[in-house]
Design a protein that fits this description.
With 244 residues, the protein is mostly helical. The protein is 68% helix and 0% strand. Helix 1 packs antiparallel against helix 6, helix 2 runs parallel beside helix 6 and helix 3 packs antiparallel against helix 6.
Amino acid sequence: RPFARSLLRFLGFIFWGTAAALAFGGVFVILMYKNYRYLFQESFLSLPGWLAVAAALILLPTGVLAISISAKMSRYQQGALMYLLLVLLCLEISSAVLAQFYSIRMPSELKSTMGYLVYQYNGTHSQGPGSRAVDAVQRKLQCCGVQNYTDWLKATAASWHLPAEKTRVPESCCKEKYSHCRGDLGHLEQLFQEGCLKKMEDQLHFVMLYVFWCCTVLSVLELLAGFSNGILMRHQPFHDFRIL
């Protein structure tokens, strides 16, 4: 019993700290989907993030209950803690499974979508949503093209209606310090040369892996909390608990 009390108190404080870590991961997923929405065909990509944020919010009262029970046992608080732990397990397992699923599935979709948008990019009328999305990604990630800047060589000649000798890259490929850069391939030092696909894949993989491991570790800790709470409940049975 004393060990179960101490463990439950310790886990209560841990839940508060991990709530912030989980909320950070969830918000990161949501913002990534919001910033690059046009590149993701999957409309539920932000769902693991929302599930993680919901779990982070529920972790706060769960931590309070765990600490309270370790100090002064209450049969009703113990029951409420068990219900909250069950809800958290459902949310976190769902979020972890979705995060792992999207980290495997999305790279191939990203490659296909970015390749299409680069080919359809219109340099003379770059106000379309697809062209704006490409420009935003290239500026934000400081990259150029899908694999590298050479992806624009065929695309510009085809969709910009330029002679082959005048092919260039969008101005969003220009480094900020070169204010007079116009995407001329004769001045490669003024351009970002690394492709956007790898950077996008790395960012997606990192944030999904972060959410996956946060949820996995928290699920284990919540099982420990449930086990500790169960030990304490054995010493204070629910003789007159009639809610069920």
